[in-house]
Design goal:
This protein has helices at 3-10, 34-41, 156-171, 177-199, 207-212, 214-225, 233-240, 244-255, 259-277, 282-288, 294-305, 309-315, and strands spanning 14-24, 28-31, 47-56, 58-63, 69-72, 76-79, 85-88, 96-97, 108-115, 120-130, 146-148. It has 317 residues and is of the alpha+beta class. It has a six-stranded mixed beta sheet with strand order 9-1-10-3-6-11. A five-stranded mixed beta sheet has the order 5-4-7-2-8, with no helix packed on it. A hairpin with a 5-residue loop joins β4 (58-63) and β5. The longest helix is centred in the middle third of the chain and has 23 residues, at 177-199.
């Protein structure tokens, strides 16, 4: 079981490109909060992440209250929680709203020139909508702003070439170009996340660090692969070939909760997804996440989310 892919599937990631910019210093624009720009880019989206791929030159980025970061050609600036942020050749310039650069209602994927007569930066910007009505261990464990050196990663050159290809397809209005561009945008976001995970300090705690630990990642894979199985810490330890005490300690140290508590939370995340998209009865959902009775499942679900599963289904949490 690929745990990262499994978790990303639960948030139903959907992406698209919205700006192909030929920027010349001085330039500086502000991107509003994800929930605000989502009204224009993806009406109805619960959460919106933003990524900026620097194809040429360099720029600076900063979220409100955060430290500025510099990104060079081949790097991606990620704003995964949709925080309002400023992007520019220098952050000392007055920032204009991104709507002055491109209309978010009708993204312009032909390369547009913006700014002054100074040094050139070529940017491709993308948005990513994801569902967040249930807690998600990936999004909960990444910072509000970071960079990933895409060009130096094994898949980086291929993804960059794919971005350039779909931009050409969009400009030519080729049939199916929007769908292809969306898939490439989603690949870009997944690679950005993988790059962040691999670059994390070795002593950094959290769910993402658990993916890099051979025993904890195996334990996570087992639970994600068969969430309905009657797992115990002893059974997980036997499958991961370490002692029960070592697994329990290592898992809690990295993930932040004991294995059985994590399993319960993940079962409820899976159940919330099933309630959201499936019309099967509660008994089948309960069985699908490891509960022998609908009543036991309903009690566990209410403990986790504060409302019964039927209420969740009717009201979207």
């Amino acid at each position: 079981m690929d745990v990262l892919s499994d978790v990303l599937r639960t948030i139903r990631l959907e992406g698209a490109l919205f700006l192909n910019g030929d920027m010349h210093a001085p330039w500086c624009f502000r991107v509003p909060k994800g929930r605000d720009i989502a009204r224009l880019l993806k009406p109805g989206a619960q959460h919106l992440a933003i990524c900026h791929l620097v194809l040429q030159g360099e720029c600076w980025a900063q979220v409100e209250g955060g430290e500025p970061i510099r990104a060079q050609a081949g790097e991606v600036i990620a704003v995964p929680h949709g925080d309002s942020h400023v992007l520019g050749s220098g952050l000392q310039h007055a920032a204009v709203d991104v709507a002055h650069v491109v209309s978010p209602r009708a993204p312009e994927l032909e390369r547009i020139r913006y700014g002054g007569d100074g040094e050139r930066t070529v940017l491709v910007c993308s948005w990513f909508a994801y569902e967040g009505d249930a807690p998600n261990p990936v999004m909960a464990n990444i910072p509000p702003l970071f960079t990933t050196p895409l060009r130096s990663r094994p898949a980086g050159p291929w993804i960059e070439q794919s971005v350039n290809f779909v931009l050409g397809e969009a400009v030519a209005h080729s049939p199916g170009s929007e769908m292809v561009a969306a898939k490439v945008a989603e690949l870009l976001f997944a690679e950005v996340l993988r790059g962040y995970i691999e670059s994390m300090p070795a002593n950094n705690p959290g769910w993402l660090a658990g993916l890099r630990d051979p025993h904890v990642s195996r334990c996570l894979a087992l639970m994600h692969g068969e969430p309905a199985r009657n797992w115990t810490v002893d059974a997980l330890a036997q499958e991961t070939h370490i002692s029960r005490s070592v697994l329990a300690e290592r898992f809690a140290e990295l993930v932040g909760v004991p294995p059985m508590q994590y399993l319960t939370r993940w079962r409820m995340i899976v159940a919330a997804g099933m309630l959201r998209k499936d019309q099967c009865n509660l008994g089948r959902i309960a069985e699908g996440v490891g509960y022998e009775s609908e009543a036991a499942f309903s009690r566990a679900f209410k403990r986790e989310y504060g409302v019964p599963p039927g209420h969740w289904r009717q009201n979207g949490a």
